[in-house]
Amino acid sequence: MGPALELALSALSALSALLLLLLGPRAASALQDVTAELFRAEAHGVVAAFGDFNSDKQTDIFLIRSRKELVILLADVKVPYFKPNVKLQLGDKEITSVMPGDYDGDSQMDVLLTVHPKDLDEITVIIFWGNNRTLDPHSFTELNKTFLDEPLVMENQTCNIALDSAIKMRVPHSHAFIDLNKDFTAGKLLNTLYEHRKCNRQFFHLSVSKQQYFYFQLFLNVINVHVSLQQWIPVLTNLKNGETIWGFVPQDTALPHSFPITIHIGDYNMDGFPDALAILRNTSGSNKQAFLLENVPCNNASCKSVGRMFRVLWELSDLNKIKNAVVATFFDIYEDGILDLLVVSEDTNAEFSIHALRNNFDADAYFVKVIGKYPFGVNQPGPYIMYTTADSNGYLKNASAGQLSQSAHFALQLPYVVLGLGRSANFLDHLYVGIPRPLGEKSIRKQEWTAIIPNSQLIVIPYPHNSPKSWSAKLYLTPSNIVLLTAIALIGVCVFILAIIGILHWKEKKADDREKRQEAHRFHFDAM
Ligand SMILES: [Ca+2]
Ligand SMILES: [Ca+2]
Ligand SMILES: [Ca+2]
Ligand SMILES: [Ca+2]
Hints:
Blueprint: H1 2-23, E1 31-33, H2 35-39, E2 46-51, E3 60-65, E4 69-75, E5 82-89, E6 94-101, E7 110-116, E8 124-131, E9 134-142, E10 176-178, E11 187-192, E12 203-207, H3 213-222, E13 240-241, E14 244-248, E15 263-266, E16 275-282, E17 288-297, E18 308-313, H4 317-320, E19 325-331, E20 340-346, E21 352-359, E22 366-372, E23 384-390, E24 396-402, E25 417-422, E26 428-434, E27 446-452, E28 456-461, E29 472-477, H5 481-527
Parallel strand pairs: 11-12, 22-28
Antiparallel strand pairs: 1-21, 2-3, 3-4, 4-5, 6-7, 7-8, 8-9, 10-11, 13-14, 14-16, 15-16, 16-17, 17-18, 19-20, 20-21, 22-25, 23-24, 23-26, 26-27, 28-29
The structure holds calcium ion (4 copies).
Residues 267, 269, 271, 273, 275, 295, 420 line the site of one calcium ion.
């Protein structure tokens, strides 16, 4: 019996070591280049927008190629994960931006393009109408008007100050359609050149100088319900890496093809604090590169009042390899709730390449992915999502975000919201979703769901709009890697223990048999 037990114990410890190896922090690089697996030969062009074009619940990618062609890469379950579907050529007009959405309310995704006609300093707008989950190159509407800047896509509202030509707007603008005053109702945040007060609660203005522009973009994306619009707070001050000093890319206002937004926001490590991806420029050279900015506790006087700041992760070799990056944004590759990275670089011939980097940071943290959309709907600007829950120490924790608050100038916002939950695997106590309400309507359009399972995907259908009580929600579970590994390990342990029990049982039986035989023998002997 002794040796068998010893054997079992040593095998168990070997197994637990193997488990630790499986479940413990992975030593591999934090980012993994998966460009070929995703795109094969299609990894060229500028990533211009995201949206589920064919309503199969998988987010598709909208590209601009050679400045004049729109290509939609549809997400697929087989390698390569993105395959070209729609291709549209626009003659001698250059495409400056792509805004997918349903512009006629037939639940088919349409595509709004801003285009830059030859010999003109302004832009025009063309909408291609979606039909049967594809685009007909002959079915489009061209607006009979030219604009100085790109439009902001939002819900229909009565107060359309954005279209009031008497008000001077910044060009390029960074207007947004987002809730700023905790009433779950997206309002318009416009950045004007001068102060204006015209509309009521649905309108906020902010006049920004050129220097504040970058901060403004950042601020808009990380905005939460407690923010005040009173002052600017530096959250990133150290841009020195050894001897090299990096800086933000100066804003290029020349239309077409400028990428004025150089910061995109996403919680890559799911700790509940939004991180950022930024394009920085080597101030002594000419290289532009994408850097991941981690949201960490503040450690200097300048950010004390907000308690948080950004720290640049300088040493990410897969990001550092991409030279002359022009756009870097978050995107959920494999739709598993973990935000990955897409980077666009420009070569010396002004050709653009796409790089896909899978996020392998072993954060051991949880998330909730929420999509607010109308039945059979498409990209929906305006929903506001917030959770409150208790963290593992019992402290109240909350996070919130607006869905599709910006659309112009390669805002590249995702058609859903991913909120990090940190390391606590508890159920979410409360999850609130609100949608914009018309001016004059008193009651807030907001609904609450309780006890949401972490690592799940929630599709909220706020319909009918004016009756939040009847809104429905569908919950999809996305088993994360760690859950899967735990399950495999558990089953392995069970099988192993069963085998040991079997062996021990068999040995015991054998010993019993021997004892019986000996006894029988003794009995015979005694009888003699
Ligand atoms: Ca799709
Ligand atoms: Ca439509
Ligand atoms: Ca974070
Ligand atoms: Ca992912």
